[in-house]
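Task: complex structure prediction.
Instruction: return structure tokens for all chains below.
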Amino acid sequence: EAQVTQNPRYLITVTGKKLTVTCSQNMNHEYMSWYRQDPGLGLRQIYYSMNVEVTDKGDVPEGYKVSRKEKRNFPLILESPSPNQTSLYFCASSASTVGHGYTFGSGTRLTVV
Amino acid sequence: DAKTTQPPSMDCAEGRAANLPCNHSTISGNEYVYWYRQIHSQGPQYIIHGLKNNETNEMASLIITEDRKSSTLILPHATLRDTAVYYCIVRVAPSITQGGSEKLVFGKGTKLTVNP
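Output:
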């Protein structure tokens, strides 16, 4: 089944403890992206990648890092999480040709205490 | 800021057509209109997209005005399961984004409630 898989689905962590949220897609998509969603603020793009080793900032990149060493994986790294990074996170991927929208993962609910 | 403007909420009776408007008055010639929906806190789901011609698929129809400054997503026979937040975004055609950007801005969308 074509899908975007995020792990973990739920995570509670403490301030300052480095964490990684993994994202993997099995559709050979070139484009991948991370979003966070907060009440009243909608979906905001954190980082995106247009191919292996090609990444760029979205609207809210502060406090996050990403890497794209392989086409299928696009992990989101929080080096020193803070409570304001408590949010619902979505990973998404898309082919690089016209005719395709983004396929989103099921989300990761992160709580930083 | 989002390049699109949508009403914050709409209601529709079950079985009737739901018509969701979107304004994108600053759309560029190489930008497509995409629609997604999000049911509760699930991952958003792609619905349909178009450039200037009207489009239809198994989920919905998309009507784009001739000047491309606005569009309407039509769910022909809304069901209770269509209750969701619907997002309209503009996106540069992926095949010509070499050196360009996949920076996407989702607005706050339209909360559609389908009533029995």
